[in-house]
Amino acid sequence: MKQTINPRSCVACRKTDQPENMIRVVRAPDGSVWIDRDGKGQGRGAYVCKDERCIVLTCKKKLLDKALRCSVPADVYVSLAAEAGTKTAGAGRTEDLLSLFGLARSGGNLTIGQDKIIEELKSGKRLAVFTASDASARFIESLRDRCRIVPVSADRERLGKALGLQSCQAVALEEDSGFARKAGDFLPEEGDVHIEHASI
């Protein structure tokens, strides 16, 4: 006789569904936390709908902390945020990257606009700066020898739209952040687009 599995509630929208249709995050007895993709991990579990809105809300408000009764590592939220990018049907690498920027912004991990980027560079932060395809040459020149410059295959309007803005010529992520590492997965292979590595 097939075992009946009780529906689980999403930590964001509270709607119920079968576990196999949701993303499970588990806190193991040793205190470690990870995304349990096969649903077999031992420990306390929390569930999130595979809907991008629920994933964004969970990351923005850190809802897993309450559900799992612990401080969930930032890398877990980064991995969860990346799940939203992979759910976009037919999306290419640029769309995935833009989706990641939106999620990073929701969590307060994205620096937007040239003034704020320059300000953070002056404060000593190590940034990866992603520039729109039509970004100002003067602005890009001002970044040289101060950070890593990564051209994005999207113009100002498209980059801005991804962030809920009319226009944006550049965004930045801290070099050592999980979001910056994940962004590397969505960048074209070497040779597809020029990625300039300036000394920091």
Automatic annotation (TrEMBL):
InterPro entries: Ribosomal_eL30-like_sf, YlxR, YlxR-like_sf, YlxR_dom. It comes from the Bacteria. Pfam families: YlxR (PF04296). Residues 8-81 form the YlxR domain. SUPFAM superfamilies: L30e-like, YlxR-like. This is Putative nucleic-acid-binding protein implicated in transcription termination. It comes from Jonquetella anthropi DSM 22815.
